[in-house]
Amino acid sequence: MDFPEPNLVKAVALALLVYIIVTYGHVLVQPKTTPAVAASKRVPSCGFPGCSKPAPLKCSRCREVSYCSKEHQKTHWKFHKKL
User: Residue 82 pLDDT > 80, yes or no?
Assistant: First the structure.
């Protein structure tokens, strides 16, 4: 039985390695978190005047202003609806 040339084996192995990296490289390497991405994951502060609590609730109408509680959203609505 004849064995393939060593250079051919190396070339095929290298081609296979390149194929795996190109195909699955995005899974193998995790991108670094940039400051812009980290900032977008932060919870905004409450849109109610004078409140700086974290605000996980968004206005269901405009989806831009956030509130820390339903009470703040309801109280601020008469001013916010004009925006």
Answer: no
